[in-house]
Amino acid sequence: MTFPWLVWLETCESTNTWALQHADQLYGGQVIYTQAQTHGRGQYNRSWQSPKGVLTASFILPQSRTIAAPSLQAGIAVMRALSALRPQVDRELQLKWPNDVIARGKKLAGILCESRSPWLVVGIGLNRCVDVAAMGLPQAISLHTLLYPSQEVPTDLELLAAIRAELLWCWQGLQWAGISAERDFLRGRSLTLVQGEQEWQGIGVGISDRGTLQVRLSNGEVREFSSGHVIYNP
């Protein structure tokens, strides 16, 4: 079976990097996929581990001023796709601001959005069948763990098609704020937000309709953050 929207690479350093380098040859709705990503990138250009069993792909979407929080909307699309394929996992899934999908308090998927006019490249790394314990990733969880032993894990192609469909639907103007509030992993949780050399400690209050993280600081002030690295207490 072939999919006209799928660009299947034998190997590449990073599907996001490849998409950015070939932006003028791409069209909306395409998916860049590889089973061998050698130098994946995460938020703040951190390296992203891509061992066997991690689904790695980049989805090509049009840039839009109406998309206030692309990483959060992409996270919702990933959750909707997983829930559609395997409904029993739906209650396990949460959003961790700004760009992670969480299950059972651990990271299931990470998202990296990057722009190259006229496209937004949405990179997604999803722990499909990876042995997170063997990889030394105690804060990660795999889809296999969530489904075992009752159901098989969806194939890479099933996941790619489902995530692509949900992303295209979400980009039509999904009212995402209510969903993010319902699924907000950090709400009510003690956390530290780091921006460069500065740190703020407080309690997660919620995600605004602009996609910012709201934190109640120790002095009672509620402050909004549009970026930063979050360290939370399990």
Description:
- There is one protein chain.
- The chain has 234 residues and is of the alpha+beta class.
- Helix content is 21%, strand content 33%.
- The protein has helices at residues 15-21, 70-85, 143-147, 156-170, 177-182, and strands at 6-9, 31-34, 40-41, 47-48, 54-62, 93-96, 100-103, 106-116, 119-127, 190-195, 198-207, 213-217, 222-225, 229-232.
- Strand 3 and strand 4 form a beta hairpin.
- Helix 2 crosses helix 4.
- It is globular.
SSE topology:
Blueprint: E1 6-9, H1 15-21, E2 31-34, E3 40-41, E4 47-48, E5 54-62, H2 70-85, E6 93-96, E7 100-103, E8 106-116, E9 119-127, H3 143-147, H4 156-170, H5 177-182, E10 190-195, E11 198-207, E12 213-217, E13 222-225, E14 229-232
Comma- or semicolon-separated keywords:
single chain, 234 residues, alpha+beta, BirA Bifunctional Protein, domain 2, SH3 type barrels, seven-stranded mixed β-sheet, five-stranded antiparallel β-sheet, 5 helices, 21% helix, 33% strand
